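User: Hi! I'm working on a homework problem where we have to compare a predicted structure to a textbook description. Could you give me the structure for the chain below?
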Amino acid sequence: MQITLMIDGEDKVFQAPFVKGRMLREAIKLSKSSNFDDLDVEDLDALVGYVVRVYDNQFDIDQFYDGISSEKLIPVITETIQKVVGTVAAPNEQVGENKATETQAIGEVKN
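Assistant: Happy to help. Predicted structure tokens:
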């Protein structure tokens, strides 16, 4: 899993290290407290903080907000959660091979 952010005027690519099981736990917890259809600032900050932790704090919340385009912000958050949940939902398949399982998994996290 990787993310590209604009930092100090240049694109920087970050790789997610080993994704801890705790990240799945956090995804479930966030899904209970966040309404993805009507996000407020606190929910968005919590979700961005989650992405930062998935990438093991290689960048901070401000670098994420300032380094990603507005139209990619929500899709990148959703994709990050989907990949974390998808790796658990389909452990014998590579992420991306079973879109039905991943879609179901992210739907369960959102609800």
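For your comparison, note the following. Residues 90-99 have pLDDT under 50 and may be disordered. The chain has one domain: 2-110. Good luck with the assignment!
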